[in-house]
Structure prediction request, 162 residues.
Amino acid sequence: MGEQQHVRFPQEVIDEYAALGVDLPALFSAGHLGTRMGVEIVEASADRVVGTMPVEGNTQPYGLLHGGASAVLAETLGSVGSMLHGGSSKIAVGVDLNCTHHRGVRSGMVTGVATPVHRGRSTATYEIVISDEEGRRVCTARLTCLLRDVRQGEQVPTGTAG
Prediction:
């Protein structure tokens, strides 16, 4: 459990950022939290970020998917989209997260899809829809990230962008 794993990105996205000198998997490492929760990115671009998370291990005392787990998945996906929109000269910092939980889920896998609502120079807002394996909406979230310039000589931090 102490070993840090990295979120998986499609190889073409990794290659694009590697050409800029950015280690994208390290930048978006979910660290211990993401490892424990089983978050995995399956598609990533500024236009659409898709990720999955198992329900098992991420439940509250009633055996339902924990709302905080949905929030972690949503913030991870929206942050990845914001960082990809901002590019290597920006750092995305989450400033507002709103989640509405529609239905409970007891088992299986949930899938989140983040799509942009607004992509500006200084902020990016993504809507994240989390669905169960039957395609039923479990949670709708909205994340706004501040896009701030990387300062000269500043190391881009590793860890989740949000």
Observations:
- The first strand starts at residue 40 and ends at 44.
- Strands lie at 40-44, 49-54, 90-101, 109-119, 123-131, 137-149.
